[in-house]
Amino acid sequence: MTAPATLGTGEARTRLHELTVIDVRTPGEYAGGHLPGALNIPLDQIQRALPDIRDAADRGDVLVVCASGARSENACRVLAEHGVAAATLTGGTGAWAADGHDLHRPRGGARTAWGMERQVRLTAGTVVLLGLLLGVLVHPAFQILSAGIAAGLVFSALTDTCGMGAMLAKLPHNRPRATDLEAALAALRAR
User: Fold this and answer.
1) Fewer CB within 10 Å, N or C, the chain?
2) Would you say 34 and 117 are in contact if contact means Cβ atoms under 8 Å apart?
3) Global pTM?
4) How far are the Cα atoms of 122, 128, 152, 157, 172 from residue 125, in angstroms, in the given order?
């Protein structure tokens, strides 16, 4: 399968008014700042939202965004498998902000979770330290925990996937409330 189409931040900014922007990050990441007008449909909810995304794509161009571009590329591939054309934002919201474009944040003091990359770093580091500590204090076999995390990080880098991130995305603080997802789908239908 070919790589999905991409838009740079400059082109995306000039076309923002005509694009349907779907942010596939977790709700906590989305609350931390997102492109103006972006709708939050987490990556693991893309299949559920497929009919509404297909209808939006029939009406105009769809831009899928995430933090760095990896999850949005995955989402674009899933959409392409179902005949829906979508582009991804090169560099994600990180590049958008780095280029000086504004990120919108919800009003009302919504609690924001750490970004997924930060959650993965904390979890991986904690398991590595735990494996080393238990290996020294209890039994050397516990060092297998650290080796397993190292192997997972290498695999993640080589395949540009993140199994730990996928598992962490299922935690309650990273899950959308049903009402939030329904509101995003209703807004998508109204565009």
Assistant:
1) N
2) no
3) 0.73
4) 5, 5, 12, 16, 21
Question: Among all chains, which residue has been given the structure tokens 């209703």?
Answer: 186
What is the tens place of the pLDDT at every residue in 147-189?
A: 999 999 999 888 878 889 888 888 887 776 666 888 888 888 8
Beta bridge partners of 23: 40, 65
Whether the Cβ atoms of residue 86 and residue 63 lie closer than 8 Å to each other:
yes
**Whose CA is closest to 42, among 113, 130, 107?**
113
What SS3 state is found at 62?
Answer: strand
Cβ-proximal residues to 181 (8 Å cutoff; 6+ apart), any chain: 40, 41, 42, 45, 48, 49
Taking the C-alpha atoms of residue 64 and residue 90, their distance in angstroms, rounded to an integer, is 10
Task: Check if the beta carbon of residue 30 is closer than 8 Å to that of residue 40.
Answer: yes
Q: Rounded to an integer, what distance in angstroms lies between the CA atom of residue 105 and that of residue 128?
A: 34
Give catalytic residue positions: 66
**Does position 108 have pLDDT exceeding 70, yes or no?**
no
**Strands 39-40 and 87-89, how do they pair?**
unpaired
- Helix intervals (H) in 22-142: 27-31, 46-59, 70-81, 92-98, 116-137
